[in-house]
Amino acid sequence: MWGETVWLAEISVSGFRNLAEQGLEFDPRANIIFGPNGSGKTNLLEAITVLASGRSFRTIQDDQLLGFEAPHFRIAGKARSSKDKEWSARVYFSPAERKHYFFDRREIAKRSLYAGWLPVFVFLLDDRRIVAGPPGQRRDFLDLAVGKLSRTYRFVLSEFRRVLAHRNALLRRRGGDDELSVWDKRLAELAGEIRERRLEYWQNFKGHFEQMSRRFLPADEIRLEYLPNVGGKENYLEVLARSREAERQVGYTRRGPHRDDFRILLNSRPLRVFGSYGEHRLAVLALALAEAQTALAAGRRPIYLMDDVAAELDNDNTHLLFDLIRSKGQLFYASAHPPALEGRRFHVRQGKIRPV
Questions:
Q1: Mean pLDDT, to the nearest integer, of 207-219?
Q2: Which domains are present in the chain?
Q3: CB 27 within 8 Å of CB 343
């Protein structure tokens, strides 16, 4: 799928949210989804995200994705490329069997190995959590972004979290230094890989973000600053050894890449504190566009999922947004009032979606 023009060609859903059981075929360029509020437009975008990544952008509770009285949900789809290739995928969930992932008819054991087969990028109307929320929101954004370009990163991150959980359990039991040393060594190895891959991605992403932010906020100076919890000159293994006694007291690992953060500076001041509501929204939009542009530069054509993001933009920024994504990927745009864009149109009413 790298270096090819790939698009989501088909999807079928059953038992998912309020969506009726149905199948749809999509345009490789633009798909406009419109209808009354609460009709299921965002649920379709969410279903596409679950198909592509194995998880929702709204909740981590899979039970909440089930339709009313539905015993399970199933989302299946096909992607096609400009070189006449085709891939199929399916996600199935029931409370009894939990979640299962299938790619080209083979079951994939872990979500970390399944996610990312289709490079979707989600833009929400009022998602300021990346800018104004806690550090975990920004780490999740960065980890998902890097993971879309590297299956190895997804595996390393999953393994790091597993080892971290073991170490934290050992700290709570007030385990001895010899036992902790074993876990510390493995944790430090994985942390080094995470740091290296994050920083490699960051160098490319940072330039794209600053380019996008200049388009939306031309009168201001916008910069990104990465805030590692462990500095580049620090030896993480030594940091873990020095921190053991204090961490036994609290029962968790306080230092490491799982505590990294980044911030956006607006005219040298933290945007999170000094930025307006409108500046927050434009910065989030620039982050999402920069993520997609970084993927495009790496050879992955983005699939944009936009949930009425232009609703609170002025005309100039709305035109700028659509100019920036035109011809750069496949677009799914959901809105109560469809924008003046060329593409296939779908009307949604009470969970039923029909082409018009």
A1: 93
A2: 1-119+302-356 (3.40.50.300), 130-299 (1.20.1050.90)
A3: yes
**Helix-strand-coil percent breakdown of the chain, rounded to 5?**
45, 25, 30
Which uninterrupted H or E stretch holds 334? strand 330-335
Q: Residues 15-68: pLDDT tens digits?
A: 999 999 999 999 999 999 999 999 999 999 999 999 999 999 999 999 999 999
Residues 6+ apart with CB under 8 A from 154: 112, 113, 115, 116, 147
Q: How far apart are CA 186 and CA 210, in angstroms?
A: 36
DSSP 309: G
Residue bearing tokens 């891939």 = 87
Confidence bin at 310 (pLDDT 50/70/90): confident
C-alpha to C-alpha distances, 191 to 166, 170, 175, nearest whole angstrom: 15, 19, 21
For the entire predicted model, the pTM comes to 0.91
For 89-100, the pLDDT digits (tens) are 999 999 999 999
How many Cβ atoms are within 10 Å of 86's Cβ, its own excluded? 11
